[in-house]
Design a protein that fits this description.
heterodimer; A: 302 residues; alpha/beta; 11 helices; 8 strands; 52% helix; elongated; B: 448 residues; eight-stranded mixed sheet; disordered N terminus; disordered C terminus
Chain lengths: 302, 448
Amino acid sequence: MSLLNQFKTSLARSKSGFVDRLGSLFGSGEINDEFFEELEETLVSGDVGVQTSLKLVDQLREAIGNQKVKEREEARKLLIQIITDTMSSGENSTLADQKPAVILLVGVNGSGKTTSAAKLANLYRQQGKKVLLVAGDTFRAAAIEQLEIWSGRAGVDLIKQEPGSDPSALFFDAMNAAKARDADVVIGDTAGRLHSKYNLMKELNKIYRVVGRNLPGAPHQVLLVVDATTGQNAVAQARSFNEALALDGLILAKLDGTARGGIVINIQDELEIPVSYVGTGEKIEDLAPFNAADFAHALLED
Amino acid sequence: MFSNLGEKLQNTLRRLKGKGKLNEKDVDAAMREIRLALLEADVNFKVVKDFVAAVRERAVGHEVMSSLTPGQQVVKIVNEEMTRLMGQDQSTLSFTRGQTSIMMVGLQGSGKTTTAVKLASHLKREGRSPFLVAADIYRPGAVKQLEVLTESIGVKSYSNLEEDPVKICSEGLKMAEREGCDVTIIDTAGRLHLDDEMMSEITEIKNTINPDEVLLVVDAMTGQDAVNAASSFQEALGLSGVILTKLDGDTRGGAALSVRAVTGCPVKYVGVGEKLDALEPFYPDRMASRILGMGDVLSLIDKAEASIDQDKAKEMEQKLRKQQFTLDDFKDQIAQLRGMGSLEEIMNMLPEAGNLPKEVKQMSMNEDNFKRVEAIIGSMTKGERQNPAILNSSRRRRIAMGSGTTVQDINRLINQFNQMQKMFKQMGGADKKGASKKMKKMKKRFPF
């Protein structure tokens, strides 16, 4: 299945509500104030956020004026282009040619870090890389077992310690293990934490520093896992995690639901953190690299 | 909890308060801001529309126009509508005489397993004898997670990875009866409301065990989509209540309003932390007044009573109210406050806390600062603590040396303290000049 198709399938179900509305907005009919107002509301209802929606609509107005667009259908294409342009920087976010390349997954509780770690491990495994998973969530009961089962399914090694052990120490050991075992990619899961908990964010920063000290340049990619159903709070999440350890990208998880995940436009706009991957289901292969044009098309297509 | 939404409504409504009489245009302007504030807070746009229409209809009528204090009248109407939407009274679980069964349902990652155990722990504290059934055979490690957690609170549980979930649940109920337990909590797998197969499985579980309660677990950070999931689960199962999780974050929690509006089900509990005792009852009226920025002083006092002795709680509350808060008190309270949760959390419960300058809020986020503040105040003389105005530059240098900090640290603390004192003053009387100035600043940040 091509990436575009996979993307469309996952968005097909979720777009029914949001996009049907957009569909009725576009089509024939003249472009008037009512059209813009409805459009603004539609974007807001897709979790794009009021300010970002206003901004997108303003950009659309300007583009319509410049290009003398008269039809709603043409306006739709313009909006697709605007969203694509806004979101393009997430494409081709590849790992630096490092060995081992270290990826760290962070996020709030229940966003889908552990599952995403397994999917990512599977993805690299399929590319023929030697992958090492790190069970960095030593806090949540049975999180280690969960990743252990996943690592078996993905056919990759797992580094773990006792529940409740210090995650920084675990990551220190994991870096040594990665070097000793000649791993290509190390994928670190971490415990879920609310971004407003100062001490937990400090713990995360420590992991970040310890990894960097043991392996200069690492972690090479820090990804924030965001649940696609999250509302405006995702921006606050991205802001805080980005302060604790510089984020390189997002994984937009659970995009196979009815949620639009429009909040990522907001995050891109404010913090310039691109989307790297999207989670599209519960199976281990349900992870796709992000493609801005596909995202915008799937979002706005009838 | 809802502090940010409260902040915005406060700003909107304060402007109404400032005017003698309201015309339709004023009300419309206020409604527009309320609408946008609610949208920013993730309340579903349809719910927002209904809410704003209801408030507007009542506000524009003579109720407001003929009132002596129009602003207060609008606040009252918004408050009433908000409380009405959230449910008038606190809602509890319903128990049957013999065996009570409670089923937890929801999307993946909403927090069902943790909440199931928190609920068991809560019921155990209430003197009941809970039993847990792990029916999530899909997520790797989910059954194990429940086992580990139930063991830690001394509650028995049942599962069987070889069986199908429907069988596990009926077996679990029998087991609970044999164990002499009176409440059985069933943790089901997280599922997408679009997944027909999984939805029919859960419908079958429900029809088989016929539970007394079906509780939807909802992540407080959910956005506009909250209504879709909630109404699907409601349609398929007929919910009896909602538990809102992860409310200890800084989310505005508009999902609470949305879910309540589309399901008509009351929120019965809220999850406020990772610890297994972090489950609290939901108070719709408190929440409504809190949303409106009237402060959640009731919850603050509850919290104080739970973590420090009552005399001290009263003393503190009085000091806050009488504006006799000195640096000495500040230091005294720090230890107590730390026992109650973060200072920020407490600030957010206070009326007008939305007015707090950012620096004050940031200071309270940082636990290290507590230590520094204690050291700085500890290095002051008694006179200095009572009257910080006498702190000239040589005194500040001395304090910096004594506390191992810098003069800048001292300056920052004194600034923060002065701002706090000002805020406490505003709580008592109205400092309209300052408020309107802040309004202008707020306007710049929120262009609509």
